[in-house]
Amino acid sequence: MTSEICEWVRASHCDDSSTMAAAVCITWTHFRGVPRTASAVTCRVQRALYMTTSSGLHFKTYCMLLIMVVFAPLGNVLLGKGMKGVGSVVSWSPSRLSHIVLLVLTSGYVWLGVAALLAFFIAYMLILSWADFSYVQPASSIALLVVALLGYFYLGERISALHWAGIVVICLGVFVVGNTPPRTTEER
Amino acid sequence: MREAVLLFLVVVSGTGGEICVTRAMKRVGEVTDFRPLALVRVILRAMKVPWMWIGISMMALAFFALLAVLSMENVSFVVPVTALNYAAGALGGKFFLGERVTSRRWAGVLIVCIGVTLVWLGKR
Asked: Looking at this predicted complex, what is its ipTM?
C-alpha cells in the first residue's frame, strides 16, 4: 500500500507543486495511524517537491549571478571613470586633499559606482543565503573579465596582449580557488 | 611606486578587514533567520563585537585607497591586481583564523599570482 501510493505520487504529480501539497495531505491523513510509514511517504513527497521547485531556484540563482557579474564590474568602472575626472591624487597636503575629497563627493560617477557596488553586495548576500559559497565565488572570476572588457570598450583603455593573458590566467586562478570547500574549520 | 603602496593597502587592508569581520560574525553565530527584525537583531549583536569595528575601518581604508589608485591607473589594471585578495585571504585564513587551506586552493592562489605578474609586466 505504501509503495503503491509513493509510486502514484511520484509518477503522476511531480511537475505540479500544488497537487503535490494536496498529495501530501492525502497521504498524511491516510497514514495517520502509522507515523513511521507516513513520514517516509512525506519524505519522498518532499524530495519530489524539491525537485520541482528547484527549476525555479535555478532561475533565481542565475538572475542573481547575472546581477552580480554585471553590477560589480560596472561599479568599479564607474568609480574609475569618476576618479579619472577628479584627477590624479599626487599631493597629500591637507588643502589639496580636502579639495579632492570635495570633488569625489560631488562626482556623479562615483556615486553611481557606489550604488552599483551596493546592488552587487545585496545580490551577493541574498544568493549566499541559499547557494554554496564555492558555487558563487567562481562567478567573480567572470566579473574580472567583464571589468577588462568594459575598460577596453567603454573607457577606451589600451590593453596589451600580455595584459589580456594575465587577466585570463587570474580568472583561471580565481576559478580554481572557488572550487574548494567553503568551510574547513570545526563547528564551535 | 606610489601605486604599488596603494595597491598593497587595498589588498592587505581589504583582506584584513574581511578577516576581522569574519571573526566577528563567527562569534555572532550562524544566521538562520532571515526575517527583517531578526536581521536587525543580528546587526545590533555584531556591532557589539570590537573585531567588527576594526574590520569595518580597515575595509573603509581599503576603499579610499582603491579610489586613490583608480585616479592614477586604469580600471583594467587595478581590478585584476586586486585578485591578490585571494592570496592574502588564503594566508590570513590560515594564520589568523586557523582554517585549513587545501592544496587545490594554494594552486589557485599561485595561478592568480602568476596572472597578476603578467598583468603587471603587460602594463607598459
From this structure: 0.80
Instruction: Give the pLDDT confidence score for residue B124 in this predicted structure.
Output: 64
Interface test with B, best of A141, A169, A172, A185 (most B CBs within 10 A): A169
Top pLDDT among B25 and A38 is at B25
At B94, which amino acid appears? K
> Where does the pLDDT of residue A15 fall: very low under 50, low under 70, confident under 90, or very high at 90 and above?
very low
pLDDT of residue A116: 94
Residue B49 belongs to what H/E stretch?
Answer: none
Q: Residue A156 region, left (φ>0) first, then alpha (ψ -120 to 50), else beta?
A: left
SS3 A142: helix
In the block, cell 531578526 appears at: B38
Residue B75 with chain A: CB contacts under 8 Å:
76-77, 79-80, 147, 150-151, 155, 157
Cβ(B16)–Cβ(B51) below 8 Å: no
What residues contact A24, with CB distance under 8 A and at least 6 apart?
Answer: A42, A45, A46, A49
